[in-house]
Amino acid sequence: MVSDAPRPLLSVSNIEVIYDHVILVLKGVSLTVPEGGIVALLGANGAGKSTTLKAISGLLRTERGEVTKGAIEFRGRAIHRRNPSEVVKHGIVQVMEGRHVFEHLTVEENLLTGAYTRHNGQSTKKDLDVVYHYFPRLTERRGFKAGYVSGGEQQMVAIGRALMARPTLMLLDEPSMGLAPMLVTEIFEIVARLNRAEGVAVLLAEQNATMALQVARHGYVMENGRIVLDGDAKAISENEDIKEFYLGLTGVGQRKSYRDVKHYRRRKRWLS
Amino acid sequence: MVDVVYAVLVAPFKDMAGSPAFLVEVLIGGVFAGLMYSLVALGFVLIFKASGVFNFAQGVMVLFAALTLVGLLERGVPVVLALALTTAVMVALAFAIERFVLRPLVNQEHIILFMATIGLNFFLEGFGEMLWGANVKKLDIGIPDRSFVVRGVQINELELTAAVTAALLVTLLAMFFQKTRIGRALRAVADDHEAALSIGIPLKTIWVVVWSVAGVVAIVAGLMWGAKSGVQFSLSLIALKALPVLILGGFESVPGAIVGGLIIGIGEKVGEVYWGPLVGGAIENWFAYVLALAFLLARPQGLFGEKIIERV
Hints:
The complex is a heterodimer of chains A (272) and B (312).
Chain A: E1 10-19, E2 23-33, E3 38-42, H1 49-57, E4 65-74, E5 77-78, H2 84-90, E6 92-95, H3 107-113, H4 121-134, H5 136-141, H6 151-163, E7 169-173, H7 181-198, E8 201-206, H8 209-215, E9 218-223, E10 226-232, H9 233-238, H10 240-247
Parallel strand pairs in A: 3-8, 3-9, 6-7, 7-8
Antiparallel strand pairs in A: 1-2, 1-4, 4-5, 9-10
Chain B: H1 2-18, H2 20-51, H3 58-74, H4 79-102, H5 110-132, E1 147-150, E2 153-156, H6 157-179, H7 181-191, H8 193-198, H9 203-229, H10 238-249, H11 254-279, H12 283-298
């Protein structure tokens, strides 16, 4: 099931990624992100979510990875041979897994570096206000070294920094990693608001499937470098296999109780 | 026993108080030497800040810049033009280094980049001498090496010019790093290459900028040292004196390089003049290293070094 839009914002078609010329990590991944949509990319550790995002943003090549087959198109233009700086200028920014703030720069300086690809001082100031509007907590922290603020605040800095580049598409890699559940909820709410109010499309790679499927409209499930399932977010969260393996629910829809642990595992109904 | 204590703790200070004009002269000598060390250390700091690479070739870059400048002057090129041309050469060198040394080694361990700069060191040394010859040359840029006397204190005109230039350069660099868009990007790259890439900061540009700036700093350092003591191979060894300065001031800190240089410059001159006779002289040769050693034990990030931020 692909989106109904005539031409998607981003379309990844059948890409293969090889690291170090030998290690095949993505084996024919295809996905699309519609204009202004939120798409979730689910999967366990090592399924290839981050690699997919890095293939799109161009960060792959600094890790000696390469897109060897297939194509990545952004608004109909091929971007898989571009370097990261050009991709950002096209309007795609990745927020990397593990936050990666500039620790020795202040929160505000971190945000300002996000505007590097743009040269207009006046609108930078305005964008800064927009970021502070979405992340009011950062206002109090603006003069602090980013290395010293809390994990949740660092994640906000990372997202805010990406926003400063005025992206049309944001690639969010595990924003929930290492954060308290309350903060995760807060950050996901902000992402959803950003999407609604600013029209930023989001491709969200997450292990936390429950949270991701709540904000996303469409979802893909990855395993071993392949997309094994895709569909409407609601349809995915109702899929028996997803409930079993990703959402931790049994068939009846209740949280699994460890008092009656099953002696068998449900078999996945897809090929991987 | 009492004699020793007296000789170490009292007599030198009595000497200082006895002739304040001489003390001021010694201090000025120390400040000058210190600023010269700072200039060399600055080159290291710039590159270390922006790429985390310890540039072993910085000393040779100073030599190479000085050799180029002298070579041009000897061929009758006017001073201003020669300076401009040397700057152009250093910028071209920065482009070449980015293209042929750094780019193929993106995201490699720092130690590998460090090794690459050792290679660069040997290359530049040979290349410079091949182009301009290996004999000692005199660098004359029109600032006379003479002194004037203010209230009984001798001040060397050349040293004064060098000190003012160094101070100016340092102020400019500090402002560049703190206030400009590129300066901020440089610090961002120093913190986290990958994150900098992810928000669209082009590493190539940043590296070319930072190596060019380090090249310009090398020109100034080469100019000042060369005018003082001639342009020769030993110029590249002043890099060794920059090391303790870095350890003292912190590898990432521009102000640290300056303060570290001043402490070492003044410390070794004062030590040499007032305490030197007690141990038979040559304090100047080891003072910096002993101080650096003490710092490594007590405060490894240096006076102004960026604290290693660790989250627990």
